[in-house]
Amino acid sequence: MEILQNYSLKKYNTFGIEAYAKQFIAVQSIPELINILKLHAFEKKFILGGGSNMLLTKDIDALVIHIDLHGKKIIKQDNNFVWVESQAGENWHELVLWAIAQNFGGFENMSLIPGNVGATPVQNIGAYGTEIKDTFVSCEALHIDNYKIKTFLKEECQFGYRESVFKNEIKDKYIITSVIFKLTRKNHKINVSYGDIQAELAKKNIDIPSLIDISNAVIAIRKSKLPDPKVLGNSGSFFKNPILLKSEFEPIFKKFPEMKFYEISETQVKVPAGWLIEQAGFKGKRFGDAGIHKNQALVIVNYGNATGQEILNVSKDVQRTVFEKFGISIEAEVNVI
Ligand SMILES: Cc1cc2nc3c(=O)[nH]c(=O)nc-3n(C[C@H](O)[C@H](O)[C@H](O)COP(=O)(O)OP(=O)(O)OC[C@H]3O[C@@H](n4cnc5c(N)ncnc54)[C@H](O)[C@@H]3O)c2cc1C
């Protein structure tokens, strides 16, 4: 168990930002994790998964604990469902592919989302009509100060659009160590609600898609739209799609009748932030080594040597301009550190 001092996090964040951890350790077991927490009880700690949802704007003046717990197993099954437990350090996409190979359904629309399993409940990850809350049963989490393990049932996680209790009330208090998911063994709920998926399946003349067909379609769409962080640093969608009350939205829509929106309830609409950013003239714009991706206006990229502060400045410029033009606030999805 080695604590590294003044350790570069460049390889540990998908933006590829050069920032240093005052101290760094990768933990591979729960006893080791508890031991470290006890030994460093009075120091600040920072929990790191795969670093694919964070923007490091400065060095981290804390003990950075990289959660490297591995293993997955089937803990229960009946005729229709299977309950799978995964340790927090498992790579999410590898878990998705493993599940599909066993013919377990529920993850396929979330193929190729970077990061590790432990972070999936933190922002209730989602893509193409599916969110982690749809398959999530519970997770175990270790309290950072009293070292007790608590099981969080789905109802306690307060899942919302890219939200959970772990991002809000109990932020930085718990380390998620494992997650249990409930997946289908048959009668899979194939979700082709997104037009992009339908188009991709049609290209291959697939009428009755299997889990792997959906996964392959999602992978193809994502590869065509999103920059690969290994090639161009980024953290996926930098902003959330704003949700507005219809009463707020209507006067804006009168001014901008071409505005895209989706009705999400009787009283609310969701506006695609990418569309707002594109209309504000930012798509493909570059500011030094920071910029907005040419194909996807929601994604801020690092062309090489941008600092976290430069990326943050671009994001603020985008937020300000969108607000000035449309009167709509867009909020960061990425954790700004
Ligand atoms: C190209 C690209 C595409 C993306 N597409 C999507 C998408 O379609 N949908 C989507 O929802 N997200 C997407 N993301 C964002 C990201 O992949 C997810 O949010 C992912 O779940 C983050 O996992 P991570 O392990 O990298 O978390 P990290 O970035 O390491 O951490 C994120 C936050 O969670 C906390 N955390 C991490 N692990 C734990 C733990 N074990 N216990 C407690 N807290 C923890 C961290 O402290 C931090 O606050 C994308 C990112 C990229 C780079």
Write a structural description.
- By secondary structure, the chain is α+β, with helices and mostly antiparallel strands.
- The protein has seven helices and 20 strands.
- It has helices at residues 30-39, 92-101, 195-203, 211-225, 246-255, 273-279, 308-326, and strands spanning 4-8, 20-27, 45-48, 54-55, 60-67, 72-77, 81-87, 126-127, 130-131, 136-143, 149-153, 174-184, 233-237, 243-245, 262-263, 268-270, 286-287, 290-292, 299-302, 335-336.
- The strands form six sheets. Strands 6-7-12-10-11 form a five-stranded antiparallel beta sheet, with no helix packed on it.
- Helix 3 (195-203) crosses helix 4.
- It is globular, with a radius of gyration of 21 Å.
- The two termini are 26 Å apart.
- It binds flavin-adenine dinucleotide (FAD).
- Flavin-adenine dinucleotide (FAD) is lined by residues 14, 47-54, 67, 88, 113-116, 118-120, 122-123, 125-127, 166, 175-176, 226, 229, 234-236, 335.
- The site of flavin-adenine dinucleotide has 32 residues, from strand 3, strand 8, strand 12 and strand 13.
Please sum up the structure shown.
This protein has 337 residues and is an alpha+beta fold. It is built from seven helices and 20 strands.
